[in-house]
Amino acid sequence: MSEGKDSAAMQRALVQFDCHGTASGKMRNDLRVHMRKPFNEGPFELATDEGSFHGGDGTAPPPLALFVAGLTGCIMTQIRAFAKRMGVTLTNLTVDARVQWDWEAKGRIYETGPRSFEVDVAIESDDPEIKVAALINAARKGCFIEQTLGRQNTIRHRMKTPTGWKEL
Amino acid sequence: MSEGKDSAAMQRALVQFDCHGTASGKMRNDLRVHMRKPFNEGPFELATDEGSFHGGDGTAPPPLALFVAGLTGCIMTQIRAFAKRMGVTLTNLTVDARVQWDWEAKGRIYETGPRSFEVDVAIESDDPEIKVAALINAARKGCFIEQTLGRQNTIRHRMKTPTGWKEL
Asked: Hey, which residues 127-146 in chain B have their CB within 8 Å of chain A?
């Protein structure tokens, strides 16, 4: 099935995004994102802030707004891309996502944890329900963020010290 | 330790973000996000798009850029908020995050999975390294997105049908 080196090379790929964040304002963070693999794209300039209740100036959305928008946009993009590839007509698409977390005070700080993720997909299509359901299920497997949330991921942290980076 | 009903009520809380996504442009998605609990905030207007290689118009960042920016902004926000509460001086903060995914073609569509998450934290502080490390480790537990990625989450999907919402 190979059509040559380029096609064969794209049977598998590593996708990498980097983000450089700088603290600005009271709680604002400026976030410069690049796609590094398999191509170079960006920079994409984003920012987060907090409202006045949390000591910020409200100049940008809070981090969780970017997260929930990223999840919603990712599943929508996958549905739209796969509709063409799977031959499913798609005359309109809206998605409503709801994400809940638990928040608990621990002394002067707090801890958090995820509670629920719900994604409602409304597709207008001339195709039968079974074909539309198959499209959504394929999109779930192609959605980078949904696949990430479905696994227990390890996040490595390092801190900068005078003698170099130190694993936490 | 309770200072009354309001303070007691904030020992635990449910945090909820909703996102309403509409398909616009070739691959662009407009994403309207609201915080619903414990307060109402928003709407926060965000968008995703794809570059021309993926059939989009490049009018907004790709979904993964929002995701990686959300993760980076979340840990930075937690570090800044907790520095005050934990009495750690913080004269400057930058964070560099790198996230990798595997991508694999499956016939005409593809599947994806997370590979690695790396977060490098550079804090300028007059305080000893051990105090700064404790701050970062506390921030990890307070970071909604990091805690979400560390668990195996179930994402419920429903599709709209003529007879109502159907679980997938």
From this structure: 129, 132-133, 136-138, 140-146
Same domain, A79 and A115: yes
> Contact A70/B73, CB-based, under 8 Å?
no
Verify that B119 and B156 share a domain, yes or no: yes
B37 residue type, one letter: K
Chain B neighbors of A105, CB-CB under 8 A:
10-12
Residues in chain B: 168
Distance CA B48, CA A67 (A): 12
Question: Are B147 and B94 found together in one domain?
Answer: yes
> Looking at residue A61, what DSSP letter applies?
-
Query: In angstroms, rounded to a whole number, what is the distance separating the alpha carbons of residues B106 and B113?
Result: 13
**Residue A5: its pLDDT value, please?**
43
C-beta atoms of B14 and A101 within 8 A: yes
ipTM of the complex: 0.94
pTM for this prediction: 0.94
Contact A94 B22 (CB under 8 A): yes
If one counts the domains in chain B, the total is 2
Residues of chain A with Cβ-Cβ distance to B158 below 8 Å are: 118-121
- Taking only the tens place, the pLDDT of each residue in A96-153 is 999 999 999 999 999 999 999 999 999 999 999 999 999 999 999 999 999 999 999 9
Write down the mean pLDDT value for chain A. 93
Q: For residue A92, what are the domain limits?
A: 62-152
